[in-house]
Amino acid sequence: xNARAPRPARQAGFTLIELLVVVTLIAIAxxxxxxxxxxxxxxxxxxxxxRLVALxxxxxxxxxxxxxxxxxxPQGLKGGDDFRFEGLPASIKLPQRWLGDPVAVQxxxxxxxxxxxxxxxEPMIPPQRLQLQLGSxxxxxxxxxxxxxxxxxSTTP
Length: 157
Fold this sequence. Notes:
Elements: H1 16-36, H2 40-66, E1 70-73, E2 84-86, E3 104-107, E4 117-120, E5 128-134, E6 137-143, E7 150-155
Antiparallel strand pairs: 1-2, 1-4, 3-5, 5-6, 6-7
């Protein structure tokens, strides 16, 4: 006689691995959707702010290296320029236009030089803040005078 042990009945339901795979797929899908729904104005302003920080720091380094007083003005003199650097040698050509739509810039009233950002030649410049605005999006760039310019706050009214 062949006695076989009775087989246990198959349990209904999902295994832990199957549940983890489903949760992971839902997380990836929701992250993709949330990134796709970001405001294009916010993305453009972030890109412009990072670019402006890099330009300001480049001009600041050149100012210190050459011993020249350099300033950044949010409004250019020539037609079509969105901003300008004053005091750099003619051999140094930094961009004077925004990448996309023009960004409104407001320099804090307590800044050292009204209407401009002082970039050197001293290693320690006065503390400065400027607000960038594009549509309803706002970003604030600041430097305490010793550290580099950086994005310090982002607001959406």
